[in-house]
């Protein structure tokens, strides 16, 4: 059997905040990084701390630092509303090439999914969506999972080698993801190629522009609900949150900031929606760049979104 502990590094114990107040317990005091507690965990945190895909895509590097920055903020939060058993699996061991890292990360995620647990993945670059998507396809079947890319960008570039802009093109091109089960949510036209828009539209992908989402959040939630009411066997769900989707006022520390985007409240609302869906298997946060963060604002936002997800998780 594939051994998770042999292919991950343990999280830094210093990140696990301890207030030592029984009337104000924090997540750092209840989340376990001890491998023996993996068996009973319902939700597993796993990080992939690399930004090689961002570098290849010509972006500003720094996302490799994100998982620990997010952990530092997450473990300060209270346990209010949280009853799930949570295990921090640490970090996928980064390999010599991005391709090798993706292969290893896929195997780790597959093992966790087969063990019946939900996963919170912390990037790193958005290219990790390819590895997580491969794990979804391998465990659920290519036709049996639904992916949402909450992002300002499409991430379907026809680049070689792979990078942070190619993950969903790879999944679609390798027939690991059915286009009709793929949603591009909150994309921004000024940041999106019309060539790739036409490709996605012709492929049958569901396209929801930022302003369309912001003008009809409840309609979007109903739309997602309708998707499940029309299928015979509920699809497993993957939620990819590229934090570039959030406006810079709320998330300044990202790989590609924009003055417009989702608000912090909308972002956290989507994370809560992900938790409310019992078929959600993976929720992934990528492209946080601590090198450009202000007062840890972006890391704090992701930490709160994680909290919302866990509180709502079914």
Computed Rg: 18 Å
CATH-defined fold name:
Arginase, Chain A
Largest beta-sheet characterization: 9 strands, mixed
CATH class: Alpha Beta
Q: Quaternary arrangement of the chains shown?
A: single chain
Order of helices and strands: EEHHEHEHEHEHEHHEHEH
Cα shape: globular
- Strands of the widest sheet, in order across it, are 1-3-2-4-9-8-5-6-7
Number of domains: 1
- Overall SS class: alpha/beta
Number of strands: 9
Which superfamily, in CATH terms, is the homologous superfamily? Ureohydrolase domain
Report on this model:
- With 314 residues, the protein is an alpha/beta fold.
- The protein has a single domain (5-312), classed as Arginase, Chain A (3-Layer(aba) Sandwich).
- Helices cover 35% and strands 16% of the residues.
- It contains 10 helices and 9 strands.
- It has helices spanning 52-56, 66-74, 98-114, 128-140, 167-173, 194-203, 210-215, 217-229, 264-276, 297-312; strands at 8-9, 43-48, 86-92, 118-123, 145-150, 182-187, 206-209, 236-242, 280-286.
- A 9-stranded mixed β-sheet has the order 1-3-2-4-9-8-5-6-7, with helices on both faces.
- Helix 9 links the parallel strand 8 (236-242) and strand 9.
């Amino acid at each position: 059997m594939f051994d998770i502990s042999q292919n991950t590094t343990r999280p830094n114990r210093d990140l696990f905040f301890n207030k030592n107040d029984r009337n104000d317990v924090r997540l750092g005091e209840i989340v376990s990084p001890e491998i023996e507690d993996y068996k009973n965990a319902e939700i597993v945190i796993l990080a992939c701390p690399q930004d090689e895909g961002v570098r290849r895509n010509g972006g500003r590097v720094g996302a490799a630092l994100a998982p620990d920055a997010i952990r530092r903020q997450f473990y300060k939060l209270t346990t209010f509303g949280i009853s799930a058993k949570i295990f921090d699996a640490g970090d996928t061991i980064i390999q010599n090439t991005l391709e090798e890292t993706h292969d290893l990360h896929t195997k780790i995620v597959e093992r966790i999914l087969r063990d019946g647990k939900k996963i919170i993945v912390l990037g790193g670059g958005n290219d990790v969506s390819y590895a997580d998507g491969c794990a979804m396809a391998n465990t659920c079947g290519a036709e049996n999972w639904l992916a949402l890319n909450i992002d300002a960008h499409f991430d379907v570039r026809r680049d070689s080698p792979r990078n942070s802009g190619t993950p969903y093109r790879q999944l679609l091109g390798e027939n690991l993801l059915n286009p009709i089960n793929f949603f591009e949510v909150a994309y921004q036209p000024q940041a999106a190629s019309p060539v790739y828009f036409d490709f996605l539209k012709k492929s049958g992908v569901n396209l929801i522009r930022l302003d369309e989402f912001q003008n009809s959040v409840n309609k979007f939630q109903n739309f997602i609900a309708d998707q499940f009411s029309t299928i015979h066997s509920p699809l497993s769900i993957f939620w990819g949150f590229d934090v570039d989707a959030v406006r810079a006022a709320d998330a300044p520390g990202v790989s590609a900031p924009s003055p417009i985007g989702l608000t912090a409240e909308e972002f956290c609302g989507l994370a809560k929606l992900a938790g409310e869906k019992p078929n959600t298997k993976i929720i992934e946060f990528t492209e946080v760049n601590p090198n450009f963060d202000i007062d840890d604002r972006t890391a704090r936002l992701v930490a709160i979104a994680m909290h919302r997800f866990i509180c709502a998780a079914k």
